[in-house]
Design brief:
The chain is an alpha+beta fold and about 190 residues long. It has nine helices and seven strands. The protein has two domains: about 120 residues, Beta Polymerase, domain 2 (2-Layer Sandwich), CATH 3.30.460; about 60 residues, no CATH class.
């Protein structure tokens, strides 16, 4: 089921030239341990000013928009929630054009799925997203990814988590280092 939706998503974004990357559970399945996930989280490298383009994509794919007034909802949340009625898979499109996301979009990992190459967040960017989200499931996902991939660009992770530390006044670097220490012992 997911493969069909991911293939369609990859083909449509490629055809329209919209930069994107899969984050969340789908990226964990690629970089970490298998786990249950019921949705697809897609970070878009565009701002909400291009919502009409995404609405056309959603319509072309036969997906259903889950909010009554998408323009108002997106302007408030930066998210467009949709559903593939055939599979009942939820797809959240997250509008973003921050310097961090622009950098992360340059580092995507392209994975062949059907006739498409689907863009997934890099290991490092998945970890950054998960540290910032900070829910217990996210912290467990970080552990699984770190155990599977002990060699990472730690400087890159520290740089961006440090940027978020400063702007959000949260100890993201410390949290990441503590998780890493619990796995490596150093």
């Amino acid at each position: 089921m997911f493969d069909r939706v991911l293939e369609r998503l990859g083909l449509e974004f490629e055809r329209r030239g919209v930069p994107y990357m899969l984050i969340g559970g789908q990226a964990v399945l690629l970089h970490g341990d298998p786990r249950l996930t019921r949705d697809i989280d897609v970070t878009l490298g565009i701002g909400p000013d291009r919502l009409p383009e995404i609405l056309q994509l959603v319509q072309a794919c036969g997906w259903r928009i889950l909010v009554e007034f998408p323009d108002r909802f997106v302007s408030r949340t930066m998210v467009l929630p949709c559903l593939d009625p055939e599979s009942n898979i939820r797809i959240d499109f997250i509008f973003s054009f921050s310097p961090y996301e622009q950098e992360a979009l340059k580092r995507v990992v392209r994975i062949p799925i059907g006739r498409a190459e689907v863009c997934f967040a890099s290991i490092e960017d998945l970890i950054i997203h998960k540290v910032i989200a900070g829910r217990p499931r996210d912290l467990e996902d970080i552990r699984s990814v770190l155990l599977k991939h002990p060699t990472l660009d730690i400087d890159y992770i520290h740089h961006w988590l440090g940027e978020f530390d400063a702007s959000l006044n949260e100890p993201f670097v410390h949290q990441f280092d503590e998780i890493r220490k619990s796995i490596t012992g150093s």
